[in-house]
Specification:
The complex is a heterodimer. By secondary structure, chain A is mainly beta. Chain A has strands spanning 4-7, 10-13, 19-25, 31-38, 42-49, 56-57, 65-67, 73-78, 87-96, 102-107, 111-115. Chain A is globular, with a radius of gyration of 14 Å. Chain B is built from no helices and eleven strands.
Amino acid sequence: NAGVTQTPKFRVLKTGQSMTLLCAQDMNHEYMYWYRQDPGMGLRLIHYSVGEGTTAKGEVPDGYNVSRLKKQNFLLGLESAAPSQTSVYFCASSYSGLAGEVGIQYFGAGTRLSVL
Amino acid sequence: SQQGEEDPQALSIQEGENATMNCSYKTSINNLQWYRQNSGRGLVHLILIRSNEREKHSGRLRVTLDTSKKSSSLLITASRAADTASYFCATFLNQAGTALIFGKGTTLSVSS
């Protein structure tokens, strides 16, 4: 069982470069999420999606864009990378509960991004 | 910030001792979740407690929830070295409850 797969696992960018992080889940989950984790800061929600074709802003959305063209994929884009975006990025997916609330989240292994 | 906040930030104990971590939150919830993260890995779900539950057990884990105080606690009994990890509580981003946000976590070190 693959679960949640993130690609790439590591990436080094120069300031101003762009890139896309890919998250794929094979659990048929409606909800998908992108978080970043910095030392001493815990996880912070960047963007999320409650279904194909929908996205919403999280706690720290600036400098990122997302797309959910297929139910199983959630893409995170950095249009012009900055050193402040050096972080570990985690993708997660979840089923929706009876009232539409988020259920248990399943996480990918993370992408370590360095912006020089 | 609407984050849940864990307390303490760090905890060091000996094998066999109990570890208690606390979480406070701000938004209304219908469930609260606890996750564990081993160094360099993704988060793994531990336990979910619903707002109409006051206590829940799973193996050596015991979670309590007090919605009137907007607080929860995670107790790990008879700790083992393998329990060394960071522990996070997760609460709702907003009233819609379609996204989780996490606190900064409690780093637990269990020495043998």
